Amino acid sequence: MQIMTDDNELWKAIVGGDDNSFQQVYHTHFTMLYEYGMRFSAEEELIKECIQQLFVKIWTNRSNLGEVNRIKPYLLFSLRTIIYNKFRDEKRRRISELAESYDFELEFSPEAAYIQREVNDHKLTALKVAMEQLTPRQKEIIYLRYFQELDYKEIASIMDVSVKGAYKLAARSLEALREILDISLVAVICLLKVAASK
Fold this sequence. Notes:
It is built from ten helices and no strands. By secondary structure, the chain is mostly helical.
């Protein structure tokens, strides 16, 4: 099976009914989607069900899909919407921008913690504690920006805010961490990059 690397061409192939391209997208992005989904809910089966629903919807509606230049942000946005609807339909929890009543867990990769343990273990621990003091939306934007390395336009689309709003939320989140940790903004960003590294 030929592996396609260009997102736009890969998406066009899916729209055209190419099963191999569809399988490639599924296998490439499943783990990332699972990790993102599990930050909203600890119910593993629920999250797996939402991911399956996402891919079934893509395949069954492929002939009506629009152009997609980057697949990862499209999938993240779509999964977030499905999880939101699932919570709403089953009256579990409401994801509300105003109330900020949804949960969003932000865990660091074990590999990053291990690699930096000698030098930065106490700093990463302090960062994790500081993260717990952020709002769910602040945690989410930190995750999307520094752990998934998405740009602000993509983040704005996923979180349903303006690009300007995404910049402001990210800035407020970083500033909150800076104040809690009492270190420079540059040091906060460097710590986040270490925590997000594999």
